[in-house]
Write a structure and sequence with these properties.
single chain; 580 residues; alpha/beta; TIM Barrel; nine-stranded mixed β-sheet; 17 helices; 29 strands; adenine deaminase
Length: 580
């Protein structure tokens, strides 16, 4: 399915029409269905005919041909469209297939995904082959096209070449350019990025911003450059300023920015009565954040905040579909749309008891419907991480005059190191630890000290990071080495070692970046990791995002990147990485 340029072939379209003429029976007939109609903004009762992955009719008629048709009386349910997550980062320990499978069970059947990890890890030909196969899953996936690496990498000009970016922009599964984490370069005169924005607009594709704390003037300038939406509003006033500059606003509720309840309260205080320019995002949170839902959880927050019921659902469905110009396929229960339908027992509880995704039962009566899609990652060159190099005590030499201090989960600033680093073990009386980032190919390393991560962590190793390079943290160099070698033996992952023992491990067997396990298992593993780190002094909430953003230069103030220790505000390398 979907191996051609168009959603349905001519032959399939003829079959869809033939169902209405009784030549073919629908696969599923939903009778007495009360569904939310976004045009009339109310619940309407109808019969819904589904053939393969498409809704072929919504109205009062019943099919002439019901041979082998599954007929379901929906009198006890309220039907709403499948929810849309418009800003997914589907590589946060989970992978696109497992996240889509999990999200679908909670009614989020369409994802619009970040392509950064694919851009950095794969050639375009292989990446596009992966996108093609992912289209066959029950959940629907679309993609963005990044314009920058979100960090300082060695070969950014060749990775983010014009030909690479343009090929992604032209792909029919790509709906937008961005997010623009590198917008300061654009403001400073980067005409190549501006050209890519122009190309995206020429193709009628959207541009997603990334403008935390932006002034009114900056928002206006970025709107002139072509930005259409921003998800970084953290207050009602910031929401209002974006609306006034003509933006669509993606209201965020994520693990590091759980802002939605306050945003909605302040939006309502501003007497904003039109919600058509809003939709929701969870902004790629780690597995444990999704323990009680995805977009359904956000709709419930909106209902409880006093948002009109229809608008609360529209922000999770039709608003995003209209914005991305996919309303003809998604966002409503109407003739011609993809058969993504959520069955609710209570209109005030958006978590569905049953879910249809592309006309297949994903969940039924509160239980998994037994349709578990398999995905072969090995044929796309995703397998255990192979490291053909070693590290030794010689690599664990620390002499930098300043280190990195954590202000919260993701913001770091420089601090002067006064601790004697000549010993192999640091005291547990303070919260300073050795920190090393090392190239996944073993070519370079950066050694410094991190303050605030933990005060009694022996050794920690992670192949999960923004760049895919290896992060080592710890008080004891022997424990750090042991954690590294166990991580290497696993084929990638996150490992904690202490006093010669491995006390925790999370295998990430898809290139050391993602797990093939279902989210239910990853949630348990991540919660256990957080427990272990908190016992050893981690005082924040999200260690996964801490790891991800160590090298992310779209956040202040200091980062470790493949090029070295990087000053974000002054845009220069303070200490270059050391070649091995």
């Amino acid at each position: 399915m979907l191996e051609q340029r168009y959603r349905w072939k001519n032959k399939q379209l003829r079959e869809h029409v033939a169902v209405l003429d009784g030549k073919f029976p629908p696969n599923i007939l939903l009778t007495n269905a009360r569904y939310l109609n976004p045009t009339f903004r109310k619940w309407i009762e109808a019969n819904i005919w589904i053939y393969d992955d498409r809704i072929v009719y919504v109205g009062d008629m019943t099919p002439e041909n019901l041979t082998d048709c599954e007929v379901i009386d929906c009198s006890d349910y309220y039907l709403v469209p499948g929810y849309i997550e418009p800003h997914a980062h589907p590589f946060q320990l989970y992978n696109p297939q497992t996240f889509s499978a999990y999200a679908s069970k909670y009614g989020t059947t369409t994802l619009i995904n970040d392509n950064l990890m694919l851009f950095l890890q794969m050639e375009n030909k292989k990446a596009f082959s992966l996108l093609k196969e992912l289209r066959n899953l029950p959940g629907t996936m679309y993609w963005w096209c990044r314009f920058d690496a979100q960090t300082e990498i060695m070969n950014e000009e060749s990775v983010f070449s014009h030909s690479n970016v343009k090929a992604w922009l032209e792909h029919d599964a790509v709906l937008q350019g961005g997010e623009l984490t590198g917008w300061p370069k654009l403001m400073a005169g980067d005409d190549m990025m501006l050209h890519w924005i122009q190309e995206a607009k020429r193709m009628r594709k959207q541009i997603e911003g990334h403008f935390p704390g932006a002034s009114e003037k900056t928002l206006a300038k970025m709107r002139l450059f072509g930005a259409d939406c921003d998800h970084e509003a953290m207050t009602g006033k910031e929401v209002l300023s974006r609306l006034l500059q003509g933006y669509t606003v993606s209201l965020r509720n994520s693990s590091i920015r759980p802002d939605l309840p306050n945003l909605l309260q302040e939006i309502l205080e501003f007497d904003i009565e039109n919600f058509d320019k809003f939709f929701y995002t969870t902004d790629g949170s780690p597995p444990s954040f999704y323990e009680d839902g995805v977009i359904d959880k956000m709709i419930k927050i909106a209902i409880e905040a006093g948002v009109p019921l229809v608008d609360a659902y529209n922000m999770g469905t039709i608003n995003a579909a209209k914005y991305y110009n996919i309303e003809y396929l998604h966002g409503s229960i109407a003739t011609g749309r993809v058969a993504n339908i959520n069955f609710l027992e209570d209109i005030n509880n958006p978590t569905p008891v049953s879910v249809l995704a592309k006309g297949k039962w994903i969940k039924r009566g509160g239980e998994s419907a037994g349709f578990e899609s398999e995905f072969n990652w090995t044929q796309h060159d995703f397998g255990p991480l192979q490291l053909d190099w070693d590290i030794s005590m010689d690599d664990l030499q620390f002499s930098m005059p300043f280190g990195i201090e954590m202000l919260n989960d993701v913001i770091t600033k420089p601090f002067s190191i006064s601790t004697d680093l000549s010993f192999d073990t640091l005291s547990t009386n303070h919260d300073e630890s050795f920190l090393m980032m090392i190239d996944r190919n073993g070519k370079w390393r950066i050694n410094t000290v991190i303050k605030g991560f933990a005060n009694s962590l022996g050794g920690f190793a992670s192949s999960y990071s923004n760049t895919g390079d290896i992060v080592l943290i710890g008080k004891n160099k022997e424990d750090m080495l042991q954690a590294f070698y166990r991580m290497k033996e696993l084929g990638g992952g996150i490992v904690v070692a202490e006093k010669g023992e491995i006390v925790y491990e999370m295998p990430l067997l898809l290139n050391g970046l993602m797990s093939e396990k279902p989210l239910e298992e990853l949630i348990r593993e991540e919660n256990e990791l957080k427990r272990i780190l908190k016992e050893r002094g981690y005082k924040f909430n999200d260690p996964i995002y801490t790891l991800l953003f160590f090298s992310s230069t779209h956040l202040p103030y200091i980062r470790i990147t493949p090029k070295g220790m990087y000053d974000v505000m002054n845009k220069n390398v303070l200490f270059p990485s050391i070649m091995r």
